[in-house]
Amino acid sequence: MGWSFYGTAVPRNTSTDLPLSPDRLADGLRAQTDAFAAAVQGVDPRTRVPTCPRWRLRDLVGHIGQEHRWAAGIVRTGAAAPVPDPKQADPGAPTRWGEWLRAGAEELIAAVTDAGAATPVWTVLGPKPAVFWLRRSLADTSVHHADAALTSGAAFRIAPDLAADAVDEWLTLLSDPAAPTVKPDVALLRGDGQTLRLEPPSGPGWLVTRTPSGVRVQRAGGRADVTVAGPVADLLLVLTRRVPPDRATVTGDRALVEHWLAHTAL
Predict the structure, then answer these.
(1) What distance, in Å, lies between the first and last C-alpha atoms of the chain?
(2) Which of 204, 144, 198 has the alpha carbon at shortest distance from 174?
(3) Eight-class DSSP state of 210
(4) What is the model's pLDDT at position 160?
(5) Average per-residue pLDDT for the chain
(6) Element spanning 211, H or E
(7) For the chain, what is the largest distance between any 2 Cα atoms, rounded to a whole number of angstroms?
(8) Does residue 242 contact residue 147 with C-beta atoms inside 8 Å?
(9) Taking 80 as the threshold, does the pLDDT of residue 175 lie above it?
(10) Which residue among 32, 137, 191, 264 is the one 20 to 30 A from 166 at the CA level?
């Protein structure tokens, strides 16, 4: 499940602050699961996924359905569970994929609702609020929706607030002090004050600073050594290496962007 084990803060519930409320995260998970299902409908299950070259489309579908159910199980028990293998998933006949995917998303939403969004559950970084699984699953589903769209030729669409939350979640993960223990390459993001700014059309954006102890992320404006500007959905796809940096506008030290992307692969 990639980075599906990271921690997050207790949810905040204003329209301008991140992360989003549990209700909005649930609505977003439904929307992105529906969009994922639509993108894979009618496509040969054996089709290779260009942005996940180890997987065929059936594996990608299996991963999403498994992830939702796996996270739901952890929320219900509060305890760790082995990460399943997408190749062992059984999503059923391709004509029923949409039904299977939606059922998994609803299982996770129900588990978080029943447990309570703030109830502590297991993560590899220690107990965290149950809602973090909803946020992580939404971000992962959104990125894999892009994978499905790039495979099938469908359009990738995501609401700006959901894309912004997925960007924030990914940066939060990479800046966690424990991240290098899970993904050693993250330690190579340490630096001497180099700065990278992500600039959407509206809102404060993100200012990332490479410090000797790790990555620091702020929701702030200001100058930076390099700025990546564009629609927030494009920023998400650039950050997760689904599209090249030129999908956005890069101004400043491009080598910093390339270095960042080289050491943050999913």
Answers:
(1) 10
(2) 198
(3) E
(4) 96
(5) 91
(6) strand 206-211
(7) 53
(8) yes
(9) yes
(10) 191
Q: Do domains 22-158 and 179-262 have the same CATH topology?
A: no
Query: What is the predicted pLDDT for the residue at 233?
Result: 98
Tokens of 75: 């929320």
Q: What percent of the chain has pLDDT over 90?
A: 83
Do 154 and 39 touch, CB atoms closer than 8 A? yes
Residue 167, SS3? helix
Q: Which helix (H) or strand (E) holds 64?
A: helix 57-77
Going by CATH, does the domain composed of 22-158 fall within 3.90.1170.50? Answer: no
Phi, psi of 75 (to 5 degrees): -65, -40
Q: Kindly report, residue by residue over 70-121, the tens digit of the pLDDT.
A: 999 999 999 999 999 999 999 999 999 999 999 999 999 999 999 999 999 9
Task: Please name the residues in contact with 62: beta carbons below 8 A apart, sequence gap of 6 or more.
Answer: 86, 87, 88, 89, 90, 91
* Domain residue ranges in the chain: 22-158, 179-262
Pairing of strands 194-199, 226-229: parallel
- In terms of pLDDT, which residue wins out, 69 or 8? 69
Q: For 179-262, which CATH superfamily applies?
A: SCP2 sterol-binding domain (3.30.1050.10)
